[in-house]
Amino acid sequence: MSNLSLFFAQNVVSEISEEVIISPRFKNEAGKPVPWKLRSMTEDENEAIRKSSQRKIKERGIVTLDTNSDEYLAKLVVASVVFPDLKDAELQKSYGVLGADQLLRKMLLPGEYATLLQKVQEVNGFDRDVNELADEVKN
């Protein structure tokens, strides 16, 4: 039998962080690409982001929730990026925008944004399916 204490909060890595190169265009003084620091979040945080990206739609007397996936993903990315500080007023001002999500759209090329989104999904565990995890447990 397994030991249930392995699942106690104090025994679990609570946050995963990772440094990744999103773009070779952002360079340090030595001319090397600067890594972005990403963090994982809890499902509570994810749920709050998802709910803030939903709106109610009433059609024929039936109310349903519609999630704006672009808004959800943008908020997920913003919440996961630790460095650079996307909420920094000077950084936003340098790009002529207000808001972290608008900043990302202005500072990144489409492919860079896609890379960042992919890395954010990976650090938050969205990159693995249940079958992969089951195979890992079996081995």
TrEMBL record:
<protein>
    <submittedName>
        <fullName>Phage portal protein</fullName>
    </submittedName>
</protein>
<dbReference type="Pfam" id="PF08890">
    <property type="entry name" value="Phage_TAC_5"/>
</dbReference>
<dbReference type="InterPro" id="IPR038559">
    <property type="entry name" value="XkdN-like_sf"/>
</dbReference>
<dbReference type="InterPro" id="IPR014986">
    <property type="entry name" value="XkdN-like"/>
</dbReference>
